[in-house]
């Protein structure tokens, strides 16, 4: 589909869709295109309006990009904090979390990996967890 801006001899401008540029020529040669305002068959193609991104849209995009960068920075900060203050237990995380939760004497901060299923199970047991989207260090 192609959209043309059309103009009649009385300077009316309107838009119309065609399957391709050939269809436009074909319809015009058969006088099948007429102005929607004055019904004249004397219609020509005017220059197609280029698609431009408005300034507002551009600013919006820049803003969300900045927001993403800020979130990533915050996550990196959070990650550094966790790495410094929490003990890494890796895949032992669900087991370690339970041992801390059920043995109240233990009190340490740990972090590690858990599958979504494991996380769900722990939550059902009443264990409060925070999931941090861990961004890969490689693109830092
Ligand atoms: Zn017209």
Descriptive keywords:
single chain, 140 residues, 2 domains, three-stranded antiparallel sheet, 4 helices, binds zinc ion
- The secondary-structure class comes to alpha+beta
- Largest sheet properties: 3 strands, antiparallel
Bound molecules: zinc ion
Distance between the termini: 44 Å
Q: What percentage of residues falls in helices of 4 or more residues?
A: 40-55%
Give me the side-by-side strand order of the main sheet. Answer: 2-1-3
State Rg. Answer: 32 Å
Which term fits the overall shape?
rod-shaped
How many β-strands, per DSSP?
Answer: 5
Mean pLDDT: 84
Following the backbone from N to C, one meets helices and strands in this order, namely EEHEHEHEH
User: Strand fraction band?
Assistant: 15-25%
As residue ranges, the low-confidence spans are none
The number of helices is: 4
Count of discrete structural domains = 2
Reconstruct the topology from this structure:
Blueprint: E1 2-8, E2 13-18, H1 21-29, E3 43-46, H2 55-85, E4 87-90, H3 93-102, E5 110-112, H4 116-124
Parallel strand pairs: 4-5
Antiparallel strand pairs: 1-2, 1-3
Residues 8, 10, 12, 35, 37-38, 40 line the site of zinc ion.
In a nutshell, what does this entry contain?
With 140 residues, the chain is an alpha+beta fold.
3D structure, described in words:
The protein is α+β, with helices and mostly antiparallel strands and 140 residues long. It folds into 2 domains: 2-46, no CATH class; 78-139, no CATH class. It has 4 helices and 5 strands. Strands 2-1-3 form a 3-stranded antiparallel beta sheet. Strands 4-5 form a two-stranded parallel ribbon. A hairpin with a 4-residue loop joins strand 1 and strand 2 (13-18). The two termini are 44 Å apart. Zinc ion (ZN) is lined by residues 8, 10, 12, 35, 37-38, 40.
